[in-house]
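Bench log. Compound arrived from synthesis this morning; before running ITC I wanted a structural hypothesis for how 4AD sits in the protein. Inputs:
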Amino acid sequence: MKEVSIKELYKDDGFKKYNDEDLTINGWIKTNRDNGSLGFIELNDGTFFKNLQLVYDKDSEDFEKISHLATGSSINVIGKLVLTPNNKQPFELKVIKIKLLGDVEEGYVLQKKRHSFEFLREIPHLRVRTNTFNALYRVRSTLAFAIHKYFNEHGFVYVHTPIFTTNDAEGAGQTFKVITDKNKKDPNSFFGVPVDLTVSGQLHVEPFALAFKNVYTFGPTFRAEESNTTRHAAEFWMVEPEMAFADLKKNMEVIEDFLKYIINYVLVNNKEEMDFFATFIDKDLYNRISHVLDKKFEIMTYTKAIDELKKAVSEGHKFENNDIYWGMDLQSEHERYLTEKIVNGPLFLIDYPVEIKAFYMKLNDDKKTVAACDLLVPGVGELVGGSQREENLDILSEKMKKAGNYDSLSWYLDTRRYGGCVHSGFGLGFDRLLMYITGISNIRDSEPYPRTFGKIKF
Ligand code: 4AD
Ligand code: MG
């Protein structure tokens, strides 16, 4: 007998070719109801967002037993596919036989009622079975694939940068230290030097750009930021491309092209999931996303942004931090004001003050600003952080002496000593991107097993 998946039945009206055929399928019961002579099971097999409706009646073997099957049970069903063009669902499976594979104990919480996101966060191993999280992590998977596809099609080489590292790439002092069970007393005894979990693969991927031209790394990164926000996690995934012979302008062109490509890929390949998010999570989703796809991303200098924020304050807008001055580090309330109120769409902020950005960014001719580009988007704030890199050995050496990493990062300077060139790159926060695309408003939900300040489950 033919074994099918629910996806195969729904996609491109695949069910039509099985009219009147006996089929078999494995899955989990979402709901089961009956009126004594006729019963309906909503079955999901994990391959598709929608359920398959099973219909059983007194002709089905064991009507009594079937009607007592609990929500969550795994079953194997054999049934006949029938077309039901007048019903909500265009087809259903008329049950011939059901075999219970895995029963459900009492106390199973995922019954047919709505649970809050907060409650579901306590059970990450079970929430993935709900519609929202099933859709979310399917989109997450598609998105990761789209990222590899984009870079592969554009000739980028994929580099596996390490997770253990001896350097703090961003120099922000937010690293997690690595110790072993045995060497708690002398943390350096394993590697011989202090080791951290990486905050960014950039410093390790740059040397590859100077050998392959266009490269990227995509993996988990770790930051001990003690901030309890909806957008910060201690462990998150980042995509970091790096391009030789590319300046800041080229960098921004790639960011824009790349984002449009992957968002479009998700829209085409996860249509049902995106419709779900647009209906239940964010009514403005398609409108918001079409802005991204159709419009050219705007570019604004940091200096202009400060002017805009000052103007907003003088016109009576109240930020929590209302003290706006050139040289300040923008808070997410400021970033969101700029992207939501001023441009209502993605916005590149460029040319930040040198003091508030990482040591490796290229100093502009004004000597006060660096060739950085942060991409801000409505709802999320900073989605991408990128820059042209400082290729001048003397300037970079000076900056590194000031930052205190000149000695420990001597190897990094080799990329400037030997055949250095203009090069640029960026880091895209993958978990934030998923929030942005689906409208899910908390990073604790966009990550399968979130690790955030003060909280880790399993
Ligand atoms: O702006 P960031 O710190 O840039 C870098 O790490 C550079 N080395 C990237 C590069 O040029 N190769 O981080 C990049 C992005 C941010 O824009 C944000 O989307 C995300 O990573 N991010 C976080 N996401 C979740 N939780 C956190 N704690 C994050 N910190 C940064
Ligand atoms: Mg940043």
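What the model suggests: Residues 169-170, 200, 202, 223, 225, 232-233, 236, 238, 240, 382-387, 425-427, 429, 431-432, 443 surround 4AD (ligand 1) (CB under 6 Å). Residues 109 and 115 are 9 Å apart (CA to CA).
ITC booked for Thursday regardless.
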